[in-house]
Amino acid sequence: MTFSDLQMWLTFGVIALTIVGFSLERLAVETTALASLVLLTLVFVVAPGAFDLSSPLSFEDLLQGFANPALVAVLSLIVVGQGLFQTGALDAPSRHLARNTRLPPSAVFVLLIVFAGALSAFLNNTPVVVMMIPVLMSLAREQRISPAKLLMAMNFATIIGGSTTLIGSSTNLLVAQVAHHEAGINLRLFDLAAPGLAIAAVAVPYILFVIPRLFGKRPQEAVKFASGKQFITEIVLPEGHPLVGMRSVAGLFPGLRDITVRLVRRGGTIHLPPFEDIELQPGDLAVFSGIREDLARHGIIKPARGERSTETAGGGTHSVGEAIVAPGGRIIGRSPAETGIEQTSGISVVAVERRGRMSRQAFSDVRLEEGDVLLLSGTDAAFDRLRGSRDLLLLEKSFAPLPARRDTLRSILIFTGLIVLAATGLVPIAIAALGAALLMLAFGCLNIRQARRAFDSRIFMLIGASIALATALERTGGAQFLAEHLVAVTEHGGPRLLLSALFALIAILTNVLSNNATAVLFTPIAVSAAAAIGAPPLPFIMAVIFAANASFATPIGYQTNLLVMGPGNYRFVDFLLAGGPLTIISWLVFSLFAPWYYGI
Prior knowledge:
By secondary structure, the protein is of the alpha+beta class. The protein is 56% helix and 9% strand. The protein has 25 helices and eight strands. It has helices at residues 3-24, 29-50, 59-63, 69-87, 91-100, 105-120, 125-143, 148-162, 170-183, 193-209, 221-224, 292-297, 308-312, 341-345, 380-386, 408-424, 429-442, 448-454, 457-475, 478-490, 495-509, 515-532, 538-548, 559-565, 572-598, and strands at 231-236, 260-266, 269-271, 285-290, 318-325, 348-353, 373-379, 392-401. The strands form two sheets. It has a four-stranded antiparallel β-sheet with strand order 1-4-2-3. β2 and β3 form a beta hairpin. α20 runs antiparallel to α21.
């Protein structure tokens, strides 16, 4: 055995250990990825240097994955998505959909997921996933369900949809180019439609009705979806407020199913529930009660009046936080407006929580008592000024950023520009995403701290390490070794067995390597294998396309898997449990359909 052969087998061992490490999760994902890089460095850099041997990989080659355009694109798209989330850009459309459709929520989710899959047949599925993540996240909050039930299903639907046309995925186009060069075959736009729709016919029901049942609430969502404190607040509805024009039905406001409307004052008339055919109008004073997340989402919690101008001048990010009225505090017995908090610190008292004893009265008429919890709104600088107060005890862990709705139009325009550039191919998606992330920061849709929090170290290390593993497998001839032995083992079993085995091998490798690298590597091998047994090359080329797109079983299989990993709070093993069966479904359907359809 030569030293190069030993390096190939050691690469197989590192890949196996890495996959086991990711699956068991005894160590952090970042630690496992770093360990794989260290092992590859020992195999390809340290050992050859110690014994004065040649190596197919340098240390710089192993680190190239951390400067890969795919990594830049994924991290930039995450920042763009965070900008959309911070500005609440897609909350209003999703609430409109949930409020005005006559379909049940489950049907709305099904339609959105099917729509995402259909759209991916004609657009790159990465911007489709970026567009759908905030929509589904918002609807999940609206319906009080875990985003984990929706995001993976939507992501897999886009991958399935992207494999039904030639332009649905960059993988399809790469295979078409190599197939034209190797076999003179010219694939047309809808040549993939028949096998793609056959796979979709079985895969889509699994995606829609089985995958959501595999996920309950993630541990990180326990606080997010808890009922929380019920605050009472009031707002005078201005022109253009999203609640203006909302009409009561059967005594309630159906668009505010998660918030209680306690009182509406119009002029000198006070309306109490149940509300009889009332439409909210500008100038109405409305009193609401609900948890802080819902009050913020509906635009009821607003920045302090004294801080709005400084915000536009760079005065800081608006946050909401809670504070307890201290025993013996000077503000006891006063109304929120009489406390002087807004005048002295720039903090606005936007809501009050008093367990079990809040009567039907206007927020401005509430007299504060010892132990009341106040919901406060203001900039970080304003909260710093309040921290020395003896009248309030700030609950530091309760602070959260308030959506900057003034930047909603900006974030939507930036996002639309990204989608147009990515869909038309005017510039590479990595450049478009990087530019969009820069514009989100430059125009104040989110700040550096929020962008830094959106940066996911798991994704950074996963992509960098997986590209290093893929490079090692290619340079050592490991992938070529596996493919050639597969052909040798199955060529006497006829074209059907070879076709099925080829699909299975590629489907396994595409979840370890990048799908584009796997597709390019195996297309000439598939053409040669077909020629060796006298079979037509087209079905084998199709096997490469659909197997390379079957990247469901690991988060590193495809970049959109990584995009939903953070928002859905998924673990590595979640992709294996939900995506593994989907990979098997794709393999079985293709193995049965393709020989019949192509007549082999």
